[in-house]
Amino acid sequence: MEIRLITVLSIVASSMLVAGGYKIPEQSLNSNALGAAYVAHTSGADSAYFNPANMSFMEDKQYFTAGLTLAHLPSITYTLASPYSGESEVENIFIPNFHYVSKAINNLRWGISVTAPAGLTKRWETPYQKMYAQEFTLKNVELNPVLSYRINDALSIAGGLRVVYSEGVVYSDGGTIAPVKREMEGDSFNFGYNLAMTYKPTEDINLAVTYRSNIDLEEEGEANLFVGEVGQQYGTSVTVPLPAALNISVSKTWEDKFTLEFNYERTYWSSYETLDFHYDTAIPLPLQPLFDAPLARDWEDTNTFRVGATVAMDNKITMMMGFAIDETPVPQRTIGFELPDSDATIFSMGFSYQQTPNLSWGVSFVVDSKESQTVPKGVAENQVLANGGSLSGGGAYLTTIGLSYEY
Q1: For the residues of 24-84, what is the DSSP string, one character each?
Q2: pTM here?
Q3: Are β-strands 302-312 and 295-296 bridged in parallel, bridged antiparallel, or unpaired?
Q4: Can you list the residues of the chain whose pLDDT is less than 50?
Q5: Out of 3.40.50.300, 2.40.160.60, 3.30.230.10, 1.20.1300.10, which CATH number does the structure's domain 8-406 have?
C-alpha cells in the first residue's frame, strides 16, 4: 500500500484547529455546569470572558473567580481488518482559568480573563496510526482584557482584545511500514478581538449577542524530516485560521430563583479551506509530494445548540445543569487520525455553595459523548482511512472545581 505522508506542520495546523473543532468553551465552574449555555445570564467575574456586556449590570464590587478543570480524554478506536486497526492513548489534561471584574467607573467597567480555550493531546502507538500522529500536543493560552459601557439601564455594549499564545509538539513515525519520520516544535503570538451586547427588555429577561473574531495563527517553527536514517532540518511557517464564532442567547428568570437559558452558536469553520506551507530551504524534488503539497481541508461552518438551567435554593446551594448538541466541522473526506472528530451530545451539571457573603465554591461535570461513525471505503483522503472502517469512543469528561470571591 502506498502511504501518502503529510508534513509536520500540516499536523500542527490540524491540531491548532482541533482546538476549535474540539474546542473547550467551558472556562469556569458555572460554564462547565451549564454546558456553556452561559452567555445571556452570567453572574460573576467570568462575565469578563463569556459576555463582558453583563459586567455593566453587576453590583458595584470587585469580582474574582478561578478554577481548575481535569479533562479526561478516553481512547479512540479505529476498527478495520488486521493490521490496520488501532487505539489511541488515554489522556488527562489540567486546564486552569482566572477571571476578574473591576468596580464601576461611572458607566465604564473593565475586566480580564486568562483561559486555555483550545488545546488537545492525542497519541497513537499502533503502527498505521502513528505514521500520521504518533503524538501531537497543543498548548493554548488566551489573555482577554475587556471594557464595557452601560448606555442605559437596559442596554450595555462591550469589547476586548484577544491575545493568544500557542505552542505545539508533533511526532510521527512510519516505523517498518514507511521509513519516514518527522519531529516539529513551533509557536506563535496572535491577536483578535471580541464584542458583546446585552439588552434587558425587562428585569427578568436578558437578550445577548457575542462575537469572537477570526485569528490567523501564523505558526513558525523547525521541522526535522527523516527518510531512513537521513534527516534534514527546515525552518517552516504556515498560516491557518482560528475561526470566528457568533453566540445569540436569551435567558428568563422566575422569582429570582430559576433561570433558563437558550444559546445558539455559529462557528465559521469554512474559512479553513487549505493548508499551504513555506520552507526556508527548498525540499528536494523527490520529497516534495510527501512534504510540500498544499492540502485541502474544506471544513464546514457548524451550529451548536445549548440549554442551561440554574436553580437558587434556600440552603445557600445553587444547582446548575445543561444540555447541548454540537456539530463537527470535519467532512469525512478530510478526516485524519490527528482529528477523528464527529458530532457530539453534551450533558452537564454542578453546584456552587455560598460559604460566606463574599466567598463561594463548587464542583461541576461535563460528559461530551462523540457519535461513532463509519467511514465508507474510498471516501477519505488519508491512505489508511481510505480503506474504510469505523471510529468509536473518544469524547471527553470534564471535572471543574472553582472558587469565587467578591467585595
Answers
A1: ----SHHHHHTTT--SSS--STTHHHH-GGGGGGS-SS-EEEEEEEEEEE--EEEE-STTS
A2: 0.89
A3: unpaired
A4: 1-20
A5: 2.40.160.60
